Amino acid sequence: MVQEKELVELLQAPSEKEEAFRILVSTYKERLYWHIRNIVKSHDDADDVLQNTFIKVFRNIDKFKGDSKLYTWLYRIATNEAITYIKKRAKRQGITSEELQQQTLERLETDVYFEGDAIQLQLQKAIATLPEKQQLIFNMKYFEEHTYEELSDILDTTVGGLKSSYHIAVKKIKAHLQTNETIL
Amino acid sequence: MEENKNKSGFTVPEGYFEALDARVLAKLKEVPLPENNGFTVPEGYFDAVEDTILKTSKTAGWEVHVTKTPKQQNSTNKSIWYSIAGIAAVLAVVFTLYPFGNGTVSLEDINSTSISAYLEEGSLELTPDEIATYLNDEDFDALMVASEEISEENLSEYLYNNLDDNSLLIE
């Protein structure tokens, strides 16, 4: 297993770049995919964003100074790419990002790559009612099981602020589910 | 990640992650489209362009140069009708704007060949569409009536002389 620091050095060495990139994709593809999927919801969109993310990483690796950890940098790029993707698509359709998300959720029931039951579907609908940053925090903590410290690095927010946001998010989601007669 | 999948309910196509590495690497090798068109301007061009334009305009006496519209060949009956309508419209405009001294010149006094030759030589730099902008609803009504009154004989003669593909006349 190549250490992160060593991998960055290989990525920044022209002769090793491609092979190092292969290792990078292999190491982070699943984690980044699920992170993106939780934001954009559909598999096809997640696939597009994931590829864009890796291409952006490849083209900008020389600008990575090592001030943050590599995985933190990757998650930031993936998050930005996913949010930008949604905003661009919403703009093209002349609707808001929230309206686009509602449309996506309405299609979830017939999505062949969503095998969630009624509760899981209701949970997705509940998450969609949260502000953008609370959605991110909830998804990353609840589904992706990041620690608050990791979240703090990625989202550049204090651990205290994250705990508070997560607590509020869970409360709102529970209230939403209770209103819709479902138990989390 | 399996646990993640179960929690959210999202799934991926079979073999998706196994094939992903190769797809990402293949995409990297695609030649990206250039971000700009490669054109450049001389240094300081935009700083000086206003002065240059103003200077040129003054030298030219503030004249507006109109680019000559390329002459179009008539190839369909529709365009022939436009031409006929155009000729009539031009005459209507000419007679309206420049009434001749004795007021005796009329459409019948000028033969259609002369008018066609005048237009084909490019002496009048107006397209039928441009001519139409000078006409009002009454002019159009008058033109429609005039067009209906063109005899078949005159029309056949006009088509014979002006149509590129005479096989159309067989019909």
TrEMBL record, chain A:
Residues annotated as domain RNA polymerase sigma factor 70 region 4 type: 121-173
Domain of life where this protein originates: Bacteria
Annotated Pfam families: Sigma70_r2, Sigma70_r4_2
The keyword Lyase belongs to this UniProt entry's keyword annotation: no
Ranges in coiled-coil conformation: none
Alphabetical list of Gene3D superfamilies matching this protein: 1.10.1740.10, Winged helix-like DNA-binding domain superfamily/Winged helix DNA-binding domain
GO molecular function: DNA binding; sigma factor activity
Family recorded in the similarity comment: Belongs to the sigma-70 factor family. ECF subfamily.
Name of this protein: RNA polymerase sigma factor
Organism: Marinirhabdus gelatinilytica
Highest classification ranks of the organism: Bacteria, Pseudomonadati, Bacteroidota, Flavobacteriia, Flavobacteriales
UniProtKB/TrEMBL annotation, chain B:
Highest taxon above the source species: Bacteria
Record protein name field: Uncharacterized protein
Keyword Membrane belongs to the record: yes
Source species taxonomy: Bacteria, Pseudomonadati, Bacteroidota, Flavobacteriia, Flavobacteriales
Record keywords, A-Z: Membrane, Transmembrane, Transmembrane helix
Bilayer-spanning residue ranges: 80-101
